[in-house]
Amino acid sequence: MSRSLHERASEILFRVVSVPAEKRPELLRELCAGDETLRAEVESLLAHYGTEAFASDDAAVPLPERIGDYRIVGVLGVGGMGTVYEAEQENPRRSVALKVVTGLFSTPEARKRFAFEAEVLGRLEHPGIARIYEAGIADEGAGPQQYFAMELIRGGRRLDEAVRELGLREKLELFVEVVDAAHHAHIKSVVHRDLKPANVLVDDAGRPKILDFGIARVLDPDQRRAGAPTLDGRVLGTLPYMSPEQAAGSLEDVDVRSDVFSLGVMLYEALSGRMPYVVPENPVEAAAVIRGTAPEPLGKTHVELRGDVAAIVGKALEKDRERRYQSARELSADIGRYLAQEPILARPPSTIYQLNKFARRHKGLVASVAAVVLALLLGLGGTLWKAREATVQAALADQQRLLADEQAALVTRVNDFYREVFASVDPHDSGPDVRLVTVLDDMAAKIDVRFPDHPVAEADVRDTVGRTYDALGLDFRAEPHLRRALEIRLREMGVEDVAVARSRIALGSVLLDLDRADEALALCTEAERGFHAALGTFARETLLARHDALACIARLGRREEARDGFDVLLELQVEHHGRNHADTLATRQSLADLEAQLGRPEEALRQNVQVVEVLSSRVSDDSVERLSSLNSLGYSYNASGDFAKAAEVWTECLEGRRKTLGERHAHTLNTQKNLASCLFRLGRRSDAREMLFAALEVLEAEVGKGHALTLDAENMRASFLMQTGSWDRARTQYEDILERGEALLPDEQVAVAHYRANYARCLAEKDELDEAEWHLRASLDVLGPEHPTIRQYMEDLASRYESHGILERAAELRALVD
Amino acid sequence: MAPPTDHATRLTLATTRGDEASRRELSSTVYAELRRIAGREASPNHTLQPTALAHEAYLCLVRHEDVGWEGRAHFLAVAAKATRRVLRQYERGRRAEKRGGAMLRVVLSDDIALASEGVDTAVLNEVLDRLAEVDERQARIVEMRYFGGLSQAEIAAVLGLSTRTVRRDLVAGHTWIARELAPKEDE
Q: Is residue B147, in this structure, part of any structural domain at all?
């Protein structure tokens, strides 16, 4: 396109859009004066003028310099009632959203009323409502303008968009906040009258804020315009969310219950993704639909919403406001009851229903009670309600006692078993210092035969045995017990029991240690869901499960995704459990490790140093948490190239771990391996070899050759060989490592990718360039082109191609990492 | 936060007077400041508001009572370009981590309705580059508006144009970009 064509098209476009739509074609023809190319270009542009993809507010009037005491900075939006500017206030100094409405009232009474109502709005203070700082009237020469200075909310998303990615429970929790905020305004006698998703913004932290509370009323005290087109032809009080009494124009009937209705429509839409009924654009037809058409039953298309949720929404959407929830508080309280699995008010109280609720809350106990009670009720047919009630209570009390007895029996059974195992350890056979692992092995061997008829007890014992193995660093021995415990609990206690979630998370974290991140991720995600449903969104265990899930995601190579998740998690933990809580610190540490992997060692170092500082002041030097934070700190020094400092930190960590966990613990050996690699880089090669070989020997004895940790140590041994130029031996070792790694770990694993890259480097050294390239590319797919090792090896391979005169291949490889 | 400096304030005043060397130096100062601000605020998937970036740099660096209205406009004009550079840098970082799937989004205008849309920075930068090939001044005006947050009057003052021309170029540039961003099936 030539420069002049675009310039001319710009000018014509500007002129054409300045006239009403129906006059545009004629003006366009006239201005183009037979130049078809020009006309085609303008028409093509015109098709995109003001489109959603990149809407412009600049076509509107030029920005005023100031309005009242506010300096105008930009336009936030143009709506039915006027323009919203971003503005700066001098005193107090702050940014505000300035909503300006042009020339609506003229009489002094109207102005007085405006000022009064505006003052009422100014007193609405609630975290869920955007503050209105001031309202006033300014005259900048174009007639008096009313304006509202309101809290400016940046980066928020509309409610309907924000809920899209939420689950049912989260949606309802969010709505409780919205409804509660509305209630706050209601008790101050302010009704919104235009509640809709566009008027609720959800900020980055997931907190909703209602905009424009009460403004509709202040601007239009007589509701003249309810349901009627406004000055610019749009409809105020957005029809689809309007209550029947609003749509009917019964102005005196519009009260808080009208807002309740609008909230009901929003809730319906948020839960089902559609509207309760189709509202035509024509206001008269629309009013008829809103008043006469019953909402499509929620449960019809969404089975999961049947029952309580559908009942709650249905009650909010009652056409007759007397049958609706009588306040926003009633609505939010009922949602709250549903979330707490308590009986809701929206349902008629039936005994069966109440019992059902009780059964949900006390799973396992009541399935049989319900049967008992049902039998009783049927048998007692015509007896008085009071008598029935008493029977139910009695039956429940009996069952409670029964349950207590059963619990006690379970505990006794499990304890008996432990006692028996400990008693059977014979000091004559094993010596005075019996290792815990010996006892565990003994226990593990006996579980199979000991609990044939008591699966729940068996699951308890296996859970303990599994977790203890894990704590001893023997994750591979923990796995079968935790797996079996999970199976039993799923079968015996049902998928919703919190014990199932606990089993899942225990197994998941062991599998992650075993580098089977895929399966671990599925388990942790399920566990999080379970904790979430049983304990709530911000419960410790819920958030810890999320932490483990994110660790799996990171291990699978989805590091950016994991980092985002950790960022959010960290905020939640700080907010709900405190900055210095052990869980919070653990998340920070994970985040730091990830930053290091993402090539931001300074950030990782900064975080880690802080975590170590906090822990050093709060726990003993040899506590597990502090040692773990030291290990991480070592990683970040290592990643930033400060090997001396890394060696120092890892030395301290190694000593502590030897003291606390013992010399043969997996964590101890891991640190030992890390320290060895560091010493090697520092030139202390024989120290490094000695240390690494010692670690390898113990690893092979304790966890075996098939363990991820062993493979990692072997990788390091082979890399020592590479670094000293023993390419042949390194290559043979890598063949073996890679073969076992592929068998043990899924191919997408970060660890395998590292081994593969090193193998490729060995191949390149032996001039097997094709083969080397294949492996290096596979490794790059996992580690990404920014990974320093990949970049270095790619460059090496490229220059080898070059020295063979294969220039295109060299260029191709370099392009891969550029 | 570094306090407003005499240095940046002087550079801004000189830039307003048309001193080219000062403008270049101001540009690199602003760029460094923006990097600092963006580094603090940007996490992937975090929405950066370009105009907020530019304004914060202004508040941090310059004693606004000394430079006045014109100085602010000139400063923001310089900041608009620097903001684009910073966002480009982040974009590069994001692309490097191509497996991550995280994305730095930018809110184009401050329109609330648009805030949720967000347009990929890389795409916008690229489209704006193409517009610059067609009409350099128009692209520059759009850049000032959306990356610097200058008002139409401010742009007109900095470039020595009438506000009508600025408005025309904004409408046309905007529409042109909307066309570029639209799905291509209609062509």
A: yes
